[in-house]
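Before the break, one more example. Copy the sequence into your notebook; we will annotate it together after we see the structure.
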Amino acid sequence: MQYRTLGRTGVQVSSLALGAMNFGTIGRTTQDEATAVVDAALEGGINLIDTADMYSDGESEEMVGKAIAGRRDDIVLATKAGMPMGGERNHQGSSRRWLVTELDNNLRRLGVDHVDLYQIHRWDPRTSDEETLSALTDLQRAGKIRYFGSSTFPAYRLVQAQWAARDNQLGRYVTEQPSYSILQRGIETHVLPVTEEYGLGVLAWSPLASGWLSGAIRAGRDITTSRSTLMPQRFDTTIPSNRARLDAVEQLAGVADEAGLTLIQLALGFVTAHPAVTSAIIGPRTLEHLHSQLAAADTVLPADVLDAIDAIVAPGVDLAAHEKHDTPPALLDPSLRRR
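Here is what the structure looks like once it is written out:
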Protein backbone atom coordinates (compact mmCIF):
# COMPACT_ATOMS: atom_id res chain seq x y z
CA MET A 1 0.00 0.00 0.00
CA GLN A 2 1.16 3.51 -0.79
CA TYR A 3 0.58 6.39 1.62
CA ARG A 4 0.15 10.05 0.78
CA THR A 5 -0.31 13.28 2.70
CA LEU A 6 -3.94 14.41 2.79
CA GLY A 7 -3.68 17.87 1.26
CA ARG A 8 -1.63 20.06 3.56
CA THR A 9 -2.90 18.51 6.80
CA GLY A 10 0.14 16.34 7.45
CA VAL A 11 -2.15 13.31 7.90
CA GLN A 12 -0.93 10.19 6.09
CA VAL A 13 -3.62 8.16 4.34
CA SER A 14 -3.61 5.08 2.14
CA SER A 15 -3.84 5.50 -1.63
CA LEU A 16 -6.93 3.26 -1.53
CA ALA A 17 -9.69 4.22 0.91
CA LEU A 18 -12.57 2.03 2.01
CA GLY A 19 -15.94 3.45 1.07
CA ALA A 20 -18.86 2.11 3.11
CA MET A 21 -21.80 3.00 0.86
CA ASN A 22 -22.56 -0.70 0.32
CA PHE A 23 -22.82 -1.42 4.05
CA GLY A 24 -26.44 -2.03 5.01
CA THR A 25 -29.58 -1.98 2.91
CA ILE A 26 -28.01 -0.54 -0.26
CA GLY A 27 -25.56 -3.42 -0.63
CA ARG A 28 -27.64 -5.96 1.30
CA THR A 29 -24.66 -6.36 3.63
CA THR A 30 -24.93 -7.72 7.15
CA GLN A 31 -22.92 -6.49 10.12
CA ASP A 32 -20.72 -9.59 10.08
CA GLU A 33 -19.99 -9.09 6.38
CA ALA A 34 -19.23 -5.41 6.87
CA THR A 35 -16.91 -6.15 9.78
CA ALA A 36 -15.09 -8.79 7.74
CA VAL A 37 -14.54 -6.26 4.94
CA VAL A 38 -13.24 -3.67 7.40
CA ASP A 39 -10.94 -6.24 9.02
CA ALA A 40 -9.48 -7.30 5.67
CA ALA A 41 -9.13 -3.69 4.48
CA LEU A 42 -7.18 -2.69 7.57
CA GLU A 43 -5.03 -5.80 7.28
CA GLY A 44 -4.34 -4.84 3.66
CA GLY A 45 -3.01 -1.45 4.71
CA ILE A 46 -6.06 0.79 4.25
CA ASN A 47 -6.32 3.37 7.04
CA LEU A 48 -9.03 5.70 5.68
CA ILE A 49 -12.73 4.76 5.91
CA ASP A 50 -15.36 6.98 4.29
CA THR A 51 -19.10 6.84 4.90
CA ALA A 52 -22.08 9.24 4.99
CA ASP A 53 -25.25 9.81 6.96
CA MET A 54 -27.55 9.06 4.03
CA TYR A 55 -26.02 5.67 3.15
CA SER A 56 -28.88 3.28 3.98
CA ASP A 57 -30.39 6.03 6.17
CA GLY A 58 -27.58 5.92 8.72
CA GLU A 59 -27.16 2.14 8.78
CA SER A 60 -23.74 2.36 7.11
CA GLU A 61 -22.43 4.64 9.86
CA GLU A 62 -23.75 2.30 12.51
CA MET A 63 -22.05 -0.68 10.88
CA VAL A 64 -18.77 1.18 10.49
CA GLY A 65 -18.90 2.21 14.13
CA LYS A 66 -19.36 -1.37 15.30
CA ALA A 67 -16.66 -2.65 12.93
CA ILE A 68 -13.99 -0.21 14.16
CA ALA A 69 -14.81 -0.46 17.88
CA GLY A 70 -11.62 -0.76 19.89
CA ARG A 71 -9.32 0.53 17.15
CA ARG A 72 -10.69 3.99 16.44
CA ASP A 73 -7.34 5.73 16.88
CA ASP A 74 -5.75 3.67 14.08
CA ILE A 75 -8.26 4.87 11.50
CA VAL A 76 -8.76 8.15 9.65
CA LEU A 77 -12.55 8.29 9.84
CA ALA A 78 -14.50 10.37 7.35
CA THR A 79 -18.22 10.93 6.96
CA LYS A 80 -20.55 13.32 5.16
CA ALA A 81 -23.76 15.28 5.68
CA GLY A 82 -26.04 17.48 3.62
CA MET A 83 -28.20 15.10 1.60
CA PRO A 84 -31.83 14.71 2.73
CA MET A 85 -32.40 12.63 5.86
CA GLY A 86 -36.11 11.90 6.04
CA GLY A 87 -38.95 14.08 4.82
CA GLU A 88 -38.54 17.15 7.04
CA ARG A 89 -37.47 20.07 4.85
CA ASN A 90 -34.71 21.32 7.15
CA HIS A 91 -33.13 17.90 7.65
CA GLN A 92 -30.75 18.50 4.76
CA GLY A 93 -28.38 21.09 3.35
CA SER A 94 -25.45 22.87 4.96
CA SER A 95 -27.07 25.40 7.30
CA ARG A 96 -25.66 25.80 10.79
CA ARG A 97 -28.98 24.58 12.17
CA TRP A 98 -28.73 21.25 10.37
CA LEU A 99 -24.98 20.61 10.54
CA VAL A 100 -24.81 21.11 14.32
CA THR A 101 -27.73 18.73 14.78
CA GLU A 102 -26.63 16.14 12.25
CA LEU A 103 -23.03 15.93 13.43
CA ASP A 104 -24.32 14.77 16.82
CA ASN A 105 -26.34 12.14 14.94
CA ASN A 106 -23.26 11.11 12.93
CA LEU A 107 -21.21 10.69 16.09
CA ARG A 108 -23.96 8.74 17.83
CA ARG A 109 -24.35 6.31 14.94
CA LEU A 110 -20.59 5.88 14.61
CA GLY A 111 -20.13 5.50 18.37
CA VAL A 112 -17.25 7.99 18.50
CA ASP A 113 -16.63 11.41 20.02
CA HIS A 114 -15.12 12.95 16.88
CA VAL A 115 -14.57 12.34 13.17
CA ASP A 116 -11.34 13.13 11.41
CA LEU A 117 -12.93 14.51 8.25
CA TYR A 118 -16.46 15.93 7.98
CA GLN A 119 -17.57 16.59 4.41
CA ILE A 120 -20.41 18.58 2.89
CA HIS A 121 -21.97 15.96 0.60
CA ARG A 122 -23.08 18.41 -2.10
CA TRP A 123 -22.91 22.16 -2.58
CA ASP A 124 -26.07 23.74 -1.17
CA PRO A 125 -27.01 26.78 -3.31
CA ARG A 126 -29.46 27.98 -0.63
CA THR A 127 -26.78 28.43 2.01
CA SER A 128 -23.92 30.92 1.99
CA ASP A 129 -20.32 29.78 2.29
CA GLU A 130 -19.95 31.96 5.38
CA GLU A 131 -22.86 30.22 7.13
CA THR A 132 -21.48 26.75 6.44
CA LEU A 133 -17.81 27.50 7.11
CA SER A 134 -18.64 29.34 10.33
CA ALA A 135 -20.58 26.33 11.64
CA LEU A 136 -17.83 23.91 10.60
CA THR A 137 -15.15 26.08 12.18
CA ASP A 138 -17.06 26.14 15.48
CA LEU A 139 -17.52 22.35 15.37
CA GLN A 140 -13.81 21.97 14.72
CA ARG A 141 -12.94 24.21 17.65
CA ALA A 142 -15.30 22.17 19.82
CA GLY A 143 -13.21 19.09 19.02
CA LYS A 144 -16.00 17.20 17.26
CA ILE A 145 -14.25 17.26 13.88
CA ARG A 146 -10.57 17.50 13.07
CA TYR A 147 -10.85 18.73 9.47
CA PHE A 148 -13.64 19.48 7.02
CA GLY A 149 -14.01 19.10 3.29
CA SER A 150 -16.39 19.22 0.35
CA SER A 151 -17.77 16.57 -1.96
CA THR A 152 -18.59 16.93 -5.65
CA PHE A 153 -18.40 20.73 -5.67
CA PRO A 154 -18.10 22.57 -8.99
CA ALA A 155 -14.67 24.13 -9.43
CA TYR A 156 -15.94 27.70 -9.08
CA ARG A 157 -17.63 26.84 -5.78
CA LEU A 158 -14.36 25.43 -4.46
CA VAL A 159 -12.71 28.75 -5.26
CA GLN A 160 -15.53 30.79 -3.72
CA ALA A 161 -15.35 28.74 -0.52
CA GLN A 162 -11.61 29.30 -0.25
CA TRP A 163 -12.11 33.04 -0.68
CA ALA A 164 -14.93 33.09 1.88
CA ALA A 165 -12.72 31.32 4.42
CA ARG A 166 -9.92 33.81 3.83
CA ASP A 167 -12.10 36.93 3.88
CA ASN A 168 -13.98 35.90 7.03
CA GLN A 169 -11.01 34.35 8.86
CA LEU A 170 -12.70 30.96 9.04
CA GLY A 171 -11.43 27.41 8.70
CA ARG A 172 -11.30 26.17 5.13
CA TYR A 173 -12.11 23.01 3.24
CA VAL A 174 -8.96 20.90 3.11
CA THR A 175 -10.31 18.13 0.86
CA GLU A 176 -12.60 17.59 -2.10
CA GLN A 177 -14.30 14.30 -2.96
CA PRO A 178 -15.17 14.20 -6.69
CA SER A 179 -16.25 11.40 -9.02
CA TYR A 180 -13.29 10.35 -11.18
CA SER A 181 -12.51 7.41 -13.43
CA ILE A 182 -11.09 6.61 -16.85
CA LEU A 183 -14.61 6.95 -18.27
CA GLN A 184 -15.42 10.21 -16.46
CA ARG A 185 -12.42 12.53 -16.76
CA GLY A 186 -14.19 15.91 -16.80
CA ILE A 187 -12.75 17.03 -13.47
CA GLU A 188 -9.31 17.14 -15.07
CA THR A 189 -10.43 20.29 -16.87
CA HIS A 190 -11.34 22.50 -13.91
CA VAL A 191 -11.69 20.75 -10.55
CA LEU A 192 -8.27 19.11 -10.24
CA PRO A 193 -6.36 22.26 -11.27
CA VAL A 194 -8.25 24.12 -8.49
CA THR A 195 -7.51 21.46 -5.88
CA GLU A 196 -3.84 21.60 -6.79
CA GLU A 197 -3.83 25.40 -6.63
CA TYR A 198 -5.31 25.43 -3.11
CA GLY A 199 -3.56 22.32 -1.81
CA LEU A 200 -6.71 20.27 -1.27
CA GLY A 201 -6.53 16.53 -0.75
CA VAL A 202 -8.61 14.65 -3.31
CA LEU A 203 -10.56 11.50 -2.43
CA ALA A 204 -11.88 10.16 -5.73
CA TRP A 205 -15.16 8.24 -5.62
CA SER A 206 -16.45 5.76 -8.21
CA PRO A 207 -12.99 4.99 -9.67
CA LEU A 208 -14.52 1.84 -11.22
CA ALA A 209 -17.26 3.94 -12.85
CA SER A 210 -20.18 2.26 -11.05
CA GLY A 211 -18.89 -1.15 -12.08
CA TRP A 212 -18.17 -0.45 -15.74
CA LEU A 213 -14.45 -0.98 -15.04
CA SER A 214 -14.84 -3.95 -12.69
CA GLY A 215 -14.32 -6.52 -15.42
CA ALA A 216 -17.87 -7.82 -15.03
CA ILE A 217 -19.23 -5.73 -17.90
CA ARG A 218 -18.05 -6.85 -21.31
CA ALA A 219 -19.49 -7.00 -24.80
CA GLY A 220 -21.71 -10.02 -25.38
CA ARG A 221 -22.45 -10.54 -21.69
CA ASP A 222 -25.63 -9.79 -19.79
CA ILE A 223 -25.09 -6.89 -17.40
CA THR A 224 -26.14 -8.14 -13.98
CA THR A 225 -24.19 -6.05 -11.48
CA SER A 226 -25.86 -4.72 -8.32
CA ARG A 227 -25.66 -1.20 -9.74
CA SER A 228 -27.44 -2.26 -12.94
CA THR A 229 -30.39 -3.32 -10.79
CA LEU A 230 -30.46 -0.02 -8.89
CA MET A 231 -29.77 2.22 -11.90
CA PRO A 232 -30.74 0.33 -15.07
CA GLN A 233 -30.57 3.43 -17.28
CA ARG A 234 -26.83 3.68 -16.62
CA PHE A 235 -26.29 0.28 -18.21
CA ASP A 236 -28.82 0.29 -21.05
CA THR A 237 -26.61 -0.25 -24.08
CA THR A 238 -29.24 1.18 -26.43
CA ILE A 239 -28.27 4.58 -25.01
CA PRO A 240 -25.40 6.12 -27.04
CA SER A 241 -23.30 7.14 -24.04
CA ASN A 242 -23.49 3.59 -22.66
CA ARG A 243 -22.48 2.13 -26.02
CA ALA A 244 -19.50 4.51 -25.97
CA ARG A 245 -18.60 3.27 -22.49
CA LEU A 246 -18.85 -0.36 -23.55
CA ASP A 247 -16.64 0.29 -26.57
CA ALA A 248 -14.09 2.02 -24.35
CA VAL A 249 -14.17 -0.84 -21.83
CA GLU A 250 -13.39 -3.36 -24.57
CA GLN A 251 -10.39 -1.32 -25.71
CA LEU A 252 -9.22 -0.76 -22.13
CA ALA A 253 -9.45 -4.48 -21.42
CA GLY A 254 -7.02 -5.03 -24.29
CA VAL A 255 -4.62 -2.46 -22.80
CA ALA A 256 -4.84 -4.17 -19.42
CA ASP A 257 -4.21 -7.62 -20.91
CA GLU A 258 -1.17 -6.39 -22.80
CA ALA A 259 0.21 -4.80 -19.61
CA GLY A 260 -0.41 -7.96 -17.58
CA LEU A 261 -3.01 -6.25 -15.38
CA THR A 262 -6.64 -6.77 -14.50
CA LEU A 263 -9.07 -4.12 -15.62
CA ILE A 264 -9.52 -3.16 -11.95
CA GLN A 265 -5.78 -2.63 -11.56
CA LEU A 266 -5.74 -0.50 -14.69
CA ALA A 267 -8.70 1.60 -13.49
CA LEU A 268 -7.44 2.18 -9.95
CA GLY A 269 -3.86 2.67 -11.09
CA PHE A 270 -5.05 5.35 -13.49
CA VAL A 271 -6.91 7.31 -10.80
CA THR A 272 -4.10 7.16 -8.25
CA ALA A 273 -1.54 8.14 -10.91
CA HIS A 274 -2.87 11.69 -11.14
CA PRO A 275 -0.69 13.96 -8.98
CA ALA A 276 -3.76 15.77 -7.61
CA VAL A 277 -5.38 12.57 -6.29
CA THR A 278 -4.66 11.47 -2.74
CA SER A 279 -6.80 8.32 -2.54
CA ALA A 280 -9.23 6.34 -4.66
CA ILE A 281 -12.31 5.27 -2.70
CA ILE A 282 -13.24 1.65 -3.33
CA GLY A 283 -16.69 0.40 -2.31
CA PRO A 284 -16.57 -3.39 -2.10
CA ARG A 285 -19.73 -5.24 -1.15
CA THR A 286 -17.98 -8.56 -0.48
CA LEU A 287 -14.56 -9.85 0.56
CA GLU A 288 -14.05 -11.10 -3.00
CA HIS A 289 -14.62 -7.58 -4.32
CA LEU A 290 -12.24 -6.15 -1.74
CA HIS A 291 -9.38 -8.54 -2.53
CA SER A 292 -9.68 -7.90 -6.27
CA GLN A 293 -9.37 -4.17 -5.58
CA LEU A 294 -6.62 -4.43 -2.97
CA ALA A 295 -4.56 -6.13 -5.70
CA ALA A 296 -4.23 -2.66 -7.24
CA ALA A 297 -2.76 -1.10 -4.11
CA ASP A 298 0.78 -0.95 -5.48
CA THR A 299 -0.06 -0.65 -9.17
CA VAL A 300 2.01 2.01 -10.93
CA LEU A 301 1.12 2.48 -14.59
CA PRO A 302 4.02 3.25 -16.96
CA ALA A 303 3.82 6.16 -19.38
CA ASP A 304 3.01 4.00 -22.40
CA VAL A 305 -0.04 2.52 -20.64
CA LEU A 306 -1.26 5.96 -19.57
CA ASP A 307 -0.76 7.16 -23.17
CA ALA A 308 -2.84 4.22 -24.42
CA ILE A 309 -5.63 5.17 -21.99
CA ASP A 310 -5.52 8.78 -23.22
CA ALA A 311 -5.94 7.53 -26.78
CA ILE A 312 -9.15 5.70 -25.80
CA VAL A 313 -10.70 8.36 -23.54
CA ALA A 314 -9.17 11.79 -24.04
CA PRO A 315 -8.10 13.87 -21.02
CA GLY A 316 -10.92 16.01 -19.63
CA VAL A 317 -13.69 14.03 -21.37
CA ASP A 318 -16.77 12.55 -19.69
CA LEU A 319 -18.24 9.71 -21.75
CA ALA A 320 -21.53 10.19 -19.88
CA ALA A 321 -21.63 13.94 -19.41
CA HIS A 322 -25.28 13.84 -18.33
CA GLU A 323 -24.25 11.90 -15.22
CA LYS A 324 -22.05 14.66 -13.86
CA HIS A 325 -22.87 15.48 -10.25
CA ASP A 326 -21.49 19.03 -10.13
CA THR A 327 -23.61 20.60 -12.88
CA PRO A 328 -24.57 24.21 -12.02
CA PRO A 329 -28.24 24.41 -10.96
CA ALA A 330 -29.15 26.79 -13.79
CA LEU A 331 -28.37 24.06 -16.34
CA LEU A 332 -30.86 21.74 -14.65
CA ASP A 333 -33.68 24.14 -13.77
CA PRO A 334 -34.98 26.33 -16.63
CA SER A 335 -36.43 28.86 -14.18
CA LEU A 336 -32.92 29.78 -13.09
CA ARG A 337 -31.79 30.78 -16.58
CA ARG A 338 -34.82 32.80 -17.71
CA ARG A 339 -36.17 36.18 -16.66
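The mean pLDDT is 95. The longest strand covers residues 145-151. Try to locate both features in your own notes.
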